[in-house]
Amino acid sequence: MIYYEVLCYSCKRIFRVYEGSLNYKQFKENKAKIFCCEDCSHKIRMDAIKNFFRYLN
Ligand SMILES: [Zn+2]
């Protein structure tokens, strides 16, 4: 299986993006872009949702 090893900008861990995934496509097109691993992107998404509700209240 083809993959790239990418550094997560958030937790600074190396994670793999596999061929066929969205991250893989984005990494191939723009290696200067910042990436984060699945754990962090999940966390960031949850934080964004929390902030959204905080904003509403
Ligand atoms: Zn991470």
List keywords for this structure.
57 residues; alpha+beta; 2 helices; 47% helix; binds zinc ion; DUF2197 domain-containing protein
Chain-wise SSE layout:
Layout: E1 3-7, E2 14-18, H1 22-29, H2 38-56
Antiparallel strand pairs: 1-2
The structure holds zinc ion.
Zinc ion binds at residues 8, 10-11, 13, 36-37, 39-40.
Number of strands: 2
Taking strands numbered 1, 2, ... along the chain, how are they ordered across the largest sheet?
A: 1-2
**Could you say which overall geometry the principal axes of the C-alpha atoms support?**
elongated
Distinct compounds present:
zinc ion
Broad structural category: alpha+beta
Number of helices: 2
Protein name: DUF2197 domain-containing protein
Describe the structure.
- With 57 residues, the protein is α+β, with helices and mostly antiparallel strands.
- It is built from two helices and two strands, in the order ββαα.
- It has helices at residues 22-29, 38-56, and strands spanning 3-7, 14-18.
- Zinc ion binds next to α2.
- Zinc ion (ZN) is lined by residues 8, 10-11, 13, 36-37, 39-40.
